[in-house]
Amino acid sequence: MKSFAIKDLMVPISEYATVQDDATLLEAVVSLHKAQQEYDSSKTRHRAILVCDKANKVIGKINYMNIIKSLEPKYDLIKGPHPLSQFGFSKTFLNSLINQQLFWDKPFNDICQKGAALKVKDIMDTITMGEFVKFDSTLDEAVHQFIMSHHQGLLVKDGKNIVGILRFSDVYGEIASMIMECNLGN
């Protein structure tokens, strides 16, 4: 594989949406929207917000799924995608459970208005050790880490400091370009 350094593909932390852990969901959504509007339109839009503590240390992430799932707290009662689906229960049966539990039983405007006040720290995914990649790592090292960890983004560290985020979509774009370049002779 062509040797690329992570620094060549990462998005600098200064260009990424961030919020403090005591921010509201509304503030997080506004931050993500603003970052998407300001980001280079030729690149993939941001799909996550980095959450920082009082010392501006990244401690978590919020993605689209976290945002939408947080609007219906009853999902916290279900662990995993559908714990019963592993036992072969049909989609119809699982949907009947959703109806019995009255998921999404209020008008969406009401749900969104109430959800806007949720605290980011209550809905974020905390950062794990498998979500970091070194600034001077190569593309093949990062690809291996993406495949093994199933994350959509890896935080890039230069020493102890987080300096950027390496997004799987950007890595895929680089690899797709290499595939086409090698096989189309361009």
Structural write-up:
With 186 residues, the protein is α/β, with parallel strands linked by helices. It is 38% helix and 18% strand. The model has no long low-confidence stretch (mean pLDDT 82).
Could you say what the CATH topology is called? CBS-domain
Number of DSSP helical runs: 7
The CATH architecture designation is Roll
Mean pLDDT: 82
Radius of gyration, whole Å? 19 Å
Q: What share of the residues lie within helices?
A: 25-40%
Assigned CATH superfamily = CBS-domain
Distance between the termini: 17 Å
**What is the 3D shape?**
globular
Largest sheet: 4 strands, mixed
CATH class: Alpha Beta
| Content-based structural category | alpha/beta
- pLDDT < 50 runs, ≥5 residues: none
Count of DSSP strands: 8
Elements, N to C (H/E) = EEHEEHHHHEEHEEH
Which strand-content bin applies to the residues?
Answer: 15-25%
Quaternary status: single chain
Strand order of the largest sheet: 1-8-7-6
